[in-house]
Amino acid sequence: MGITRYIIWTTSYEDTNEIMEILTPHSSVVVSVTDVILCIETTITAGRIRGYVGDDMEMACLEIDAKFVKKLMEAKFIESERKNFQRFLTLTKVPESINEALDLINERGGVEYLSEREITALNRLTNKPS
Q: Which ranges of 1-130 would DSSP assign to H, the alpha helix?
């Protein structure tokens, strides 16, 4: 299973904190965007996230892809929300085109020097299953 970025909406600050506590051990990056929005990077699926959190907690969990990022960035975030979301994107940055991936491979000296996150992105770009 590859690394995936998710955005999670909750109904309260308390629920956001509880979900962060539950998912932090299973995630490489967890960033709170607002009191009711958090973003995570993880190898677990949305279904597994729901399993860890439980059916009693109200939340929505969506995978973040480049198209979704563009749509979110066009939304009217307040400055602190935009800053937190951009911080998450910076922490989880991966190549978004074959050219970027090739430049990164060249820069690092080979595919074997890419991180798991970068290899997952490369596999997506080349349509190679993880």
A: 13-23, 46-53, 66-74, 79-91, 98-108, 116-125
